[in-house]
Amino acid sequence: MSQLWQHPYVNVFKHLDVASWKKATKEGDVSAIMDKAIKCTVYKITGSIPAGNYIQLPKLQTQSLGLTGKYIYILFKPIPTKYFVVHIDVATQDNLVVRISFSNLFKEFKSTSTWLQFPFLCNTPKGSVHSLAARGSTKDHGGVAPLATRWTVLCMDFSHVLSLYLNRKFSYLKSVRLCANMMVKNIFTSDNLYEPGLTVEKAKKAGLLGKGLNPMCREMSFPTQRGENWNDLYDFIRFPNDSTKKPFDSIQFSDDPEIRQDVPSESEPKRVASRTVNVSQCVSDRVTMINKITQPKQKMKRHKVTSELPFVGVDDVSIVQDSAGEVHVFAHPEEEVLVHQEDPKTGKPRQITKVSTGSYLQPKNPDCKSLEPDPILRLKRIVGFGGCSFRDALWTSDGSTVIYPCHAVVVAMKVNNGHQRFFIGHTDKVSCIGLNGAGTLLASGQTGPLSVVRLWKFDTGECMAMTKTHAHSLHSLSFSHRGSTLCGVGKDNHGKNMVVIWNTSKVMKSREISVMAKAHSDVDISRMKIAAFDDTRMVSCGRDNVRLWRVKEGQLRSAPVNLGEYHLMEFTDVCFEAGYHADKDPADRIVYACSKTGHVFEIDLQKVTIKHVRRLLPNESKASKDKQKGTGLAINCMSVNETFCVMGSDDGYLRLWPLDFEHVYLEAEHEGPVTAVDFSADGMKILAGTSTGNLGILDISTRGYTTVMRSHTGRISGVAVDPYRKHMATVSSDFTIRVWDSETLQQLYDFSAPNECPCAIAYHPSRQIFACGFESGVVRVFNVQTTSMLAEHKQHRGKIIGLAFSPVGDFLYSACSLGSMSLYDAESDRYTLLRLLANTVVRTDRLGPEAIAVSPDGRRVAFIGPSEFTVCVADAKSLSEVLRIDVSSSSSCDSKSDNLDSAERVYFAPESVGHLLVTTANNKLLKFDAKSGRLLSEIGNIHRTGCSCLAVSETGRYLVTCGDKVIKVWDYNMKLDINFQVFIGHSENVSKVIWTPDGKNVLSVGEAIYLWDFMAFRPPSPPNEGRQVRETSFPTYPQPERVGDSLQDLSKSLADTYLDMPRRTPPRPMRPTSAGSPGHIADLHPPRSLRSSPGRVADLSSIHKVYDDTVSSSVLADRTSERNIMIDQKSECDYMEILPKKNMPQNLSDSYQKLRSADNSRQNTPSKTQTKRAFGKRPESNSPVGEPVKPLCAKHFVAREKEYGLAQRRYTAPPNQAGVKLKSVIGYNGNGRGNMVWHPDTGLFIYTCGASIIIEDLDSGKQNFLMGHTEEISTLAIQNDCQVLASASGSFGISPSQICIWDLQQQVCKKVLSHHEHNIVCLDYSRDDRFLISVGDYQDCCIVVWSTLNYEILTTSKTTTAIHELRWDPFSVNEFVSVGQGGSVLFWLLDETRNNACLNVHEADVPEELLQKQGSNSVVEFTSLDFSGDSTLYVSTNNGKMSAWDTRHNTCFMHWEADNSEIGIVICRNGRLLTGSVGKNLRIWSLTGVSDMRSGDGPSMPSSGLTMEDEMNLDGSVVAASFDEALDMGIVGTTSGTLWYINWPERESIRLVSSHVQKINSLSSFGSEHLASCSDDGTLRLWSVGSREQALQFQVLNQKCTCLAFAPGEPPTEEDEKNKVILPLVVAGYSDGTVRMFDINKEEMVLKMHPHAVSVTAISFSSEGRMIISGGSDGLIAVSSPTTGMTVRVISDHKGAPITNIDVTTRQEVDSPVSVPYLWLATSADRRVSVWSSDWTKDFCELVDWLTFPAPAFMPDGSVVCNKDKKSCEKLPPSLAKFSTEEDDILVYVGYGMQKCIQFYSLSQRKVIRTAPLTHWPNSLDIAEGTPLIAVGVNERLVKLIDYYEGSFQDFVGHCDSVNFLQFSQDSKHMFSVSHSEIFIWEVTV
User: Fold this and answer.
1) CA 237 – CA 418 distance, rounded (Å)
2) Could you give the CA distance from residue 277 to residue 286 in angstroms, rounded to a whole number?
3) DSSP letters along 810-833, please?
4) Which residues, given as ranges, of the chain have pLDDT below 50?
5) Residues 234-280: tens digit of each pLDDT
6) What is the strand order of the sheet 1590-1595 is part of?
7) H/E stretch holding 978
8) Long-range contacts of the stretch 1373-1377 (C-beta < 8 A, 24+)
9) Burial class (CB in 10 A: 0-12, 13-18, 19+), 1784
10) Which of 531, 539, 1023, 1167 has its CA 20 to 30 A from that of 1426?
11) Quick count: other Cβ atoms within 10 Å of Cβ 812?
12) Where are the alpha helices (DSSP H) in 516-616?
């Protein structure tokens, strides 16, 4: 009854008589004013500090309002551009006072047990400028109140808030404090829910009165006029509500009527009792588990739990047999397992059999056969520690066992013998473990989204219970000493830390676990431990805090330790004081805490205060060594007992201290930071774990250290086994190669590669040698015994995905992700490269590390390629293709997948089986006959998501496959009803699985090394006499035998050796072998007949027969005949010719000569039969074997180096919706070769600029574009009918090289050809246009002949040296000539007389005098050639000589010196010859009488008849030329980016196209028709936009022109354009710090200044043109006068960081007291922007705003930013800022930051009001004038056009390098973009 006076509501201000301030108090600036909007008196609270200006209700804090209304209504209005705070204290039913605060000062929701802080998001009135600016923004309206605010009614439900956020019940309102800055009208409390703007009639019609929603009375609301809508004038906010607007847990306005009228059906939220679910199975399916938890149950039923850890496939499974006869096993958590089977005789389904959990699955029908024994695998040992966390390693109570996590498995290892037990069941990596004091109960938790905690019975390994309370990221567990309490720390659904206390006292008896208490906290918690003396006390530590916790009355509460001056520290570990003291209170303990700064704190547990603080320092010797003198130890972990404290630190030391910390008692150094320490129970041993994966034990008494575990810290990608020495080697992504003992699994050797990641490994079958492949493409061979590198090969360019030795070790094979495959001679000391095939293996890195499979007999090699749909089988000795299998057509037609099936893995089964196994993308296993390729069987659904690797046992009876993080063991013949068993343990997919040579074990590697016992192993029965006889022990000569039998004996010998102890000495050879014989093995001599693969037999007398592929066996007569048998097989792939070495046997060299016989379908260039010289003089190089030699001549195309490729993610709009359209291109690529075409008859004029092909009409000047290439175009070729154009570009990154075939009539690309791996240097059409030839660069050396009928490859060939140019003979059929490196002139013939076209070649003899280069020992190279009509060929050299050749005899008959530099262009027409040289000379010669000189005996110098008619000197080296038939006129391209029109009769040269040579740094436009540019070549050029002509050029030698700007001026009108336009001045900055001003109208420099000592990076005129503002690379800004040249002001605010841009605006600052100030800004590379207001007429300049944008401390690629390294800072995206042209108040900024976005900064509000996301880091920026467009250029070659308001964007491609500058024209009709030296002019269409 006492509360009836509060109904229906209470007017709080009237109840307390606020006007008299007797029952309420005010502090600071509080005043009563009359508000005109609501027409009443309100209270205005203002002040800069909210805590000092407020209204307090009631007057004293000890008093209470006692208002019980569950709703509070606050009528207030935020003051614009200010912050406000409101504090409300409420009491709960358990007498706890909770403060609820809301403010626009809060950035995010925070909560503790007594305080809730809600951010308040101010609403913007509809139609205001602020609301329009915020439209489309993805950010909220947090922060200061907007410029326009409205009166607001806030309704807060206390009951709902306390119940939702703190799990408590509301009792009454205690007090309210209203803090500045706000205006408040009144406060009301009520138990009723009111809605403003609602009348009684509307409420009755809508039925809202019955729901408890009442119209708001006039006293509580704001006034409205007749006809006005209340919601249009004011805001009403109800909190909490069901709005989905972000951010969550914030107070914000919602205009959703459904939310506004949603009334809770009950007075308070209904609490749902929590349910505890006990899951006893160790392996369970997630989906089934969730269904089981959520489905309703009629009665509680206790589940039976197995006493042993079950095996998947044994129990807890359902086995379903599909229509294909395959049985599939799935894990289920149900109590019973359902078995569905079919009768193999009738095909009808059998009855369902239920098998209880815990018993092994036995078929009901004895006819049902399964794989036996069951289980067939048993996990024996795991090599690994950590995975997710390296912080947990524990001792058991008896000190005999250590417990540690290894990825998803918890391992318990005996210390004395290394025996391991495993706790398997987690589905993700284990992040923390805990053990009770008695050592009977083990807890483990996993990370990830399913943070499950499992409790294990330690003795048996049985999972007793499982619970999931945390949402994710569980990272700490601690057991109480008695084991009745478990504490865990993780994250809740909101990402906040959640501490959970579980009651585990009933786990051992009834398997029950329940939550005792939990708490949410914003403080960081890294470690938390329960006190051993009290299960209710805990201590935690983290960043900046140490807290003491206690569970009392079901509540978990915490108290922070007052850290004082140490509050800004990262605490890493805490420990309670150990031991029992009878004279002290158990709670009177000390808590130890350590930090990253080396401080150790002693904290009084009862007083919650710091008792002592000590800082531990390293010893002086180590401190001086590491240069850390004066800095503390970075402590990671600690453990305390009664006597000592042990600590582990980042410096790798484990230190043992006495408890007074006076001195170090003992220390041990480790390889990496020590992250885990633990005392044994007796205190005599210390367990230590490191972040490098090592576990060790330190014995304090003996001071001995034992390493019990070493492991990889990265994913293991490959493993190989040495059978003789019982060693195995692994490679990992942690950049290490490790060799292990196969029995003890102890690490023996460690090969580190700091800068290269190994990815594949193969052991030599008999020698102590292994080969390793790296991601960089390098293959290295190591000797384990001497730990030395034997060989290194770098011919691969992609990641090594396959590496294998032949079975007897005479060959080594490698394959890379870019498709190349190599064959090495493994018997030579340097592992000589024998053959290299390009585009052979499918181009992908998914196949690693098993892309190559070698047959057991060593005769064949299998791989997937050249496409993913085919499997190729090649001869092992020559890599010639012998078989190709189409996997896509091999699969059955009833496949459910619509996609073509592709091969994933290939594997040769043992020789006794004779199968080739292929796994496919559709999860099928295909068995092919290894000889014929015939499909034998198909097994579907071997895994759900694909098979990562497979292996077959040596007996051929068992198959192991890996996928879905599980291992399956199959019956190889698949003849059982249940053909496989499944085994879990891996947390990631297995990289590789192998059988050990003895067949006893299976080895699987992935995240760690897993060794499994194979239970079906049957040891061979001993001889009848009881002893085993080895034939290899007797030094007798072998009898004639089959090689296959010998191979089987060798493998048997290997297996026998692996079974027994390793040999101490190598086996004796079967017959004496000389040390100098080929293939000599130093440490092992197997039988001579077994040292070589078939076909590489060292002594034919020991072998009479060879194995055969057919029924009959062939007899080898001699070595050559065997080679011929191999050669007769047709080769379907290319290879690189390797010339015979001196140490190569002669017969082997001869055999490789025969490999290049004409019978080969794709013939390769033969070496000369003459022995005196091969291809002239070879260039000498110190490069490794197989490394291409870069040509010395300028003729050979070398692409310009680029850093970024074209973006793979881009969003292009349809042409009719594009915002801009490419109008014209300024520039010509002078780096290309032959990249210009001009046809004199048709006038067709084509040239290239970057990746664009430009077709220009010379009459009208109009340009059309062929856009299809992504890389720099190297060369062009046009058909003789001028209908088809071919263009070529090289490869970059993942973009392959391309040849585009263009239809010039329709100007579309009709075909894209891709074959070459690198750049293409030459293209040429045959005279009849039937053939197109493409030539690869020096890295490729490949000639490809294409048929123009369908553009398919007719034939290919490789040369030993690079080709510079190739030409078809226009006067012969199917003949062409190539010239190139090493003085080679090759005459080719395309032979079409056979079924398959092939190439025949003849190398011409080159005169010695022509090869000699005067004054140099370098090699002469032939560079260019052309034919004349009299059977004469003219060839040029790189030393300026011309030679004439008789094409009838392929001989040189004349040569002369035509230039003093390299000649790159030769054109011959009608008795005249044109030469263009690197020396910029263009010369024309008369050839009268040259043909008469060929009758001489040898080459001679011309005496008469050869005259130079004329000569011109151009501006660069000649790289392209096209002339008419008379050589009178033509067009020439130079390296200066210029295309010249040449007219010999009139001796004139006209510049057609101009361009910059080097990188363009800046642009500036005046009007829409004038453009100025500057570049690194020191030139400033003025262009006419319409005609693209260069009007003017200023050159400064030996300096870079870095920036420029036009002076301000009115842009010319259309009438002005007709007359002569007077252009304003142009100012430019240079790299030497000078600034030059040019008068374009007078064509002269008018001023030179030197305001900077370093390079000028940005420059601009002031708004009115009175000053020049320039910024330098040192951060100084100079303001100079353009009239006097003096520097009037230097601004040093940005000193230390380069100025990236300067922007000025003509807008005036509104709020400035100075008249007519103008704004300008400067941006520096350190992400700082300064905004200035200036009036230079009064020498006024002051700072208006200073902006600093945050960024992470790492580069975009993840590397750490080094502030001292300027080069690393230069790699960051630039910081750029511009004044908005759309909004006067906005500044637009882009740069490196936390996210890729454009930020819009308000100068008035001093904050970023919105952002627009970007897909790439911006490199340049500009904003259009009058059009809401933003243009951004990125390094990934894109021009992005962005809508200013909406943020939507379009991407435009075309540039072939980073877009480093963008600018709109003044009228925004055009946009200019720059990439290196090319300028694109875009027409703006929106």
Assistant:
1) 66
2) 14
3) SEEEEEETTS-EEEEETTSTT--E
4) 1, 133, 136-140, 257-259, 264-342, 344-364, 623, 625, 627-628, 893-895, 1021-1185, 1503-1504, 1710, 1712-1715
5) 999 998 876 656 677 788 877 654 445 555 444 444 444 444 434 33
6) 1560-1566, 1570-1575, 1579-1584, 1590-1595
7) none
8) 1374/1326, 1374/1331, 1376/1324, 1376/1326, 1376/1333, 1377/1425, 1377/1433, 1377/1447
9) middle
10) 1167
11) 26
12) none
User: What is d(CA 758, CA 774) in angstroms, rounded to the nearest whole number?
Assistant: 4
CA distance 442 to 733: 32
How big is the chain by its Cα radius of gyration, in Å?
Answer: 42
Please provide the DSSP assignment of 887-940 as one string: HHHHS-TT-S--SPP-EEEEEEPPTTT-EEEEEETTSEEEEEETTT--EEEEEE
| Tokens 């069951």 belong to residue | 374
The structure tokens listed for 322 are: 């599909």
Which residue do the tokens 């009491």 mark? 91
Would you state the pLDDT for residue 583?
60
The answer to whether the bond into 910 is cis (omega within 30° of 0) is: no
To the nearest 10°, the Cα dihedral for 1489, 1493, 1495, 1496? 160
By DSSP bridging, strand 152-157 and strand 235-239 are parallel
Question: Residue 802 carries which DSSP code?
Answer: E
980, 327 in Cβ contact below 8 A?
Answer: yes
Contacts of 584 (CB under 8 A, 6+ apart): none
pTM over 0.70: no
Neighbour count for residue 288 (Cβ, 10 Å): 15
Cα 1313 to chain centroid, rounded? 29
8 Å CB contact between 963 and 970: no
Q: How far apart are CA 1119 and CA 512, in angstroms?
A: 78
Please choose, from the candidates 695, 698, 687, the residue with its C-alpha nearest in 3D space to the C-alpha of residue 671: 695
The amino acid occupying position 1350 is: N
The tokens for 740 are 């292990």
The number of CA neighbours under 13 Å toward the Cβ of 1786 is 20
Longest alpha-carbon distance in the chain: 135
End-to-end CA separation in angstroms for the chain: 72
Nearest in space to 356 (alpha carbons), one of 327, 340, 328, 334: 334
**Amino acid of residue 1260:** S
Q: Is 319 helix (H, G, I), strand (E, B) or coil?
A: strand
What integer pLDDT is reported at residue 1079 of this predicted model?
37
Q: Phi, psi (5° rounding) for residue 172?
A: -160, 165
Residue 247 parent element (H or E)? none
Other beta carbons within 10 angstroms of residue 1843's beta carbon come to 16
CA–CA dist 1011, 1289 (Å, integer): 50
* Res 1170: pLDDT: 34
SS3 content of the chain, % helix, strand, coil (to 5): 5, 40, 50
Hey, what are 134's tokens? 């915020």
Beta-carbon contacts of 1593 under 8 Å, excluding residues fewer than 6 positions away, are 1579, 1580, 1581, 1582
Cis bond upstream, residue 849 (ω within 30) = yes
Q: What is the model's pLDDT at position 1071?
A: 36
From 1365, 1357, 1323, 1355, select the one nearest 1340 (Cα to Cα).
1357
- CA-wise closest residue to 2 among 60, 67, 61, 59: 67
Contacts of 1314 (CB under 8 A, 6+ apart): 1296, 1297, 1298, 1299
Taking only the tens place, the pLDDT of each residue in 636-682 is 999 999 889 999 999 989 999 998 888 888 889 888 899 999 999 88
Using CA atoms, how far apart are residues 603 and 313, in angstroms rounded to an integer? Answer: 54
CA distance 1629 to 1652: 10
